[in-house]
Amino acid sequence: MAQISYEHVTKTFDGTTAVDNLSLEIADGEFLVLVGPSGCGKTTALRMLAGLEEISNGRILIGDRVVNNLAPGARDVAMVFQSYALYPHMTVYDNLAFALRNRKLPKEEIDRRVRDAASVLDLETLLQRKPKQLSGGQRQRVALGRAIVREPAAFLMDEPLSNLDAALRVATRAEILKLQRRLRTTTIYVTHDQVEAMTMGDRIAVMSKGVLQQIGTPEELYTRPVNLFVASFIGSPAMNLVPGGSVLKVGGAGTTVGFRPEHVTLDGAQAGYAQWDATVDVVEYLGDEQLAHLRARDENVLAKLPVEPRLAPGEQRRFAVPLRQVLVFDAESGEATGFAG
Fold first, then answer.
1. What residue numbers bound the domain in which 251 lies?
2. CATH assignment at residue 66
3. How far is 44 from 10, CA to CA, in rounded Å?
4. Tens of pLDDT along 91-102?
5. What is the pTM assigned to this prediction?
6. What is the CATH classification number for the domain harbouring 252?
7. Helix, strand or coil for residue 160?
8. Counting Cβ atoms within 10 Å, is residue 261 exposed (0-12), middle (13-18) or buried (19+)?
9. Structural domain count, the chain
10. For residue range 298-310, what is the model confidence (pLDDT) as tens digits?
11. What is the DSSP letter of 253?
C-alpha cells in the first residue's frame, strides 16, 4: 500500500488542456473516487498515474517515489478497465496467473496468490472455465482478481462497472467495497456516475473541464458544495437551482439559490422556512415516495415527498423549505457564499 500524490499535474493534448494543475493527496489505504462528466479529465488523470499517458507538467508520487519517468510495469499499480480484457483462450486460473508467470514467480507462489484471490472473489469453482462460459459479473470478478494477485501498492479502476446492468452494478460495487476494506489497498476509482461516487468513496474528487472543483467526503460534497457545478452534479435527484428572489424570496439580484428536492415539504408554514405557491405539473410515484415536478413563477422545481398525501397534476399547493438548507451562490462566479438561514 502507498500514499499517492499529484503535484500541480497538467496534461495537454495538441494544445488542449485535459488536466489542469491537479494537486491531490490520496492517503495510504484510502478509497478515492474521481468523478465528473465525460471529458472532464478524470480518466486522463488515472492514466498518467498508471504510466499510460505522459505528464506534461508537474509530478506524481507513489509513496516517496516520483514516477513520472517510470515504465507502467515499474510503478507497482494494478489497473482494472471498463472492458474486462480477459484472454478468451485461457481458463480463469490462467488469466489470473498470466502476469505472475511473466514476472517468473515460483510456481508455488503463483498458485497461492491465484487461489487466495479466487477465494476472496468466490471464483474457486470457476477456475477451469473460460471467459465465454462466465456471466458479466463473473468476468468482472476475474478482472479484479488479476489486479489482486499482483499485490500492488494501489488499485486503479476506470469505470469498471459500466458494462454491467443496474442490479449487477449495485451488487458488484458492494463486492468491490468489501474487497477494498479487507485488503486496505489504496484505490482510485474513476466514474461518471455520482451515485457510485457517493456510495463508494471515502472521499470524492469532483472534476470539470480538467480542473479539480472540490474534494471531500460524500457528506461534505452533498451538504456544502463549493460552487454551482458541484451542487448540480452531486445528489440524485439534482439540486434545485433558481434565480435569487424568484421562487424563494431570498438571495436577491446577482445570486442563484439552491435547495435539494428532499428538503422540500408540503405546506410547512413555520418560522425559518421559505414558502412558495406552485402548480403540480407531473408526479412520479415511486412506491414509498413521490417526485413532484412543480411550476412556480416560471421556474421548474422538483420536490421529493412522502407518498401521502398524494399530489395530482394541475393541483396548486403551498410548499416550503428550511432556510438553513438553502444555499446561496454568486451567479457570476458560481461560488457558494453561504446558507440563507
1. 237-339
2. 3.40.50.300
3. 10
4. 999 999 998 999
5. 0.90
6. 2.40.50.140
7. coil
8. buried
9. 2
10. 999 999 999 999 9
11. T
